[in-house]
Specification:
alpha/beta, seven-stranded parallel β-sheet, 13 helices, Rossmann fold, disordered N terminus, 402 residues
Length: 402
């Protein structure tokens, strides 16, 4: 049997509290592209390694990944997702991967995407009596409605339920999303793995008027920003419809779009007067966000809302859908506005208030920045480590009692 039940120290040990812990992490997209989920996973692995744990990551690899992976990465068989070639779908646990996994002898298996390889990893772990933690990063069940296939949602929800119920516990990025998972009966052991924000990158001092000018944005322009991958499930239709409402009402504003994706041509055609600044990363991303005057995030697929938190850290008020993620971050009428999903006229009215009232932007932006100070990456990632240790102890107790 794998060395799953080797002794491990308690999580409150003062020096290297995770020394001896071995974690096998399965990711559908660890560093192939850049998104909130894989950034969070890489930060988690970096934290675990600094605390003395051993981590082995199993994920697809490509010749030219978006960034260098944190930790040891083992390539798993995969294929490009049709129509979304920037993502790859792990397709199997090959004999080579299984041998590597057995040699590593993890004490806990962490799956972060309900793909084929993760299903196989869950079965592999269950046969060996290993605890399994699943992190849930996105509202996969809502995706079909953006591609005129809403009839698929019940079947997809059932498939997700089968996957997550085979895991010992879940971690979700926000309490609002955790409650959705409970209501859907995905699992009943759900902890919170929130998200942090890098204050060196995201803060109001990053605002750069000269950069704005280089994009054709005047100092007195009120800039409504979009930040994220340009895919329909991010609410691009609602965003553009609300902007149309502002234009028809004669509300002076400018739109700044940060991000790339397969729906860029569609979005460009819908917003011909917008400034598309493309992908921004690191300090450039912090500059771009801080140079907005309001962030508009109409997406309902977010489980946390990294972009919302990043805007708040930059002192930028947020207009967001009252959905999982943002509603755990934004205090309505204090640091931003939470609007009924899809309510275009209400979104437009909230944006109008910010466009026309500089004092309101300043006050709500300051409140958002104060709220963002609560999100420390180390504290947040330790919560996941504590969940690993709890699951290992519980599994040992059940085995001893059985």
């Amino acid at each position: 049997m794998a060395r799953a039940m080797d002794p491990i120290p308690e999580s409150n040990t003062s020096v290297a509290p995770l020394s001896g812990l071995r974690v096998a992490l399965f990711s559908g997209n660890y560093n192939v592209t850049v998104d909130g989920a894989n950034r969070a996973l890489n930060r988690l692995v970096g934290y675990l390694l600094r605390q003395g744990a051993q981590v082995r990551v199993y994920a697809p690899t490509v010749a030219n990944p978006a960034f260098e992976p944190t930790g040891d990465l083992v390539s798993v068989p995969s294929f490009a997702i049709p129509g979304r070639a920037e993502y790859r779908l792990p397709s199997a646990l090959s004999p080579r991967v299984r041998r590597d996994l057995a040699a590593f002898a993890p004490q806990v298996v962490h799956v972060s995407s309900p793909d084929i390889a993760a299903h196989r990893a869950v079965s592999w772990a269950r046969r060996r009596g290993l605890p399994i933690l699943a992190s849930v990063h996105t509202r996969f069940d809502t995706y079909p409605r953006y591609y005129n296939m809403a009839w698929l949602e019940p079947a997809l929800t059932a498939l997700l339920r089968r996957f997550y119920r085979r895991c010992d516990a879940l971690v979700a990025p926000s309490e609002s999303f955790a409650q959705v998972l409970r209501d859907q009966r995905m699992n009943y052991d759900i902890d919170i793995w929130s998200r942090g924000v890098d204050r060196d990158v995201f803060n109001p001092r990053r605002r750069d008027l000269s950069w704005r000018r280089s994009l054709g944005l005047a100092d007195d322009d009120v800039v409504i920003g979009f930040l994220g991958r340009l895919v329909m499930e991010k609410g691009l239709d609602v965003f553009s419809d609300a902007i149309d409402q502002l234009s028809r009402r004669g509300i002076a504003h400018k739109v700044l779009v940060i991000g790339e994706g397969p729906a860029r041509d569609w979005f460009t055609a819908r917003l011909p007067d917008a400034v598309f600044a493309g992908f921004q990363g690191g300090a450039d991303l912090g500059r771009a966000v801080a140079s907005m005057d309001v962030l508009f995030n109409p997406s309902i697929t977010e489980t946390f809302g990294n972009v919302t938190l990043e805007a708040m850290a930059c002192g930028v008020p947020v207009v967001a859908a009252a959905a999982t993620g943002s509603q755990s971050l934004v205090d309505d009428h204090i640091s931003g506005r939470l609007i009924t999903p899809g309510a275009v006229r209400q979104f437009a009215e909230a944006l109008r208030c910010y466009v026309e009232d500089a004092d309101l932007r300043t006050a709500h932006g300051a409140a958002g920045e104060a709220r963002s100070l609560e999100f420390s990456w180390d504290r947040i990632n330790q919560a996941v480590a504590d969940t690993y240790l709890r699951l290992i102890r519980q599994k040992k107790q059940r085995m001893a009692g059985g």
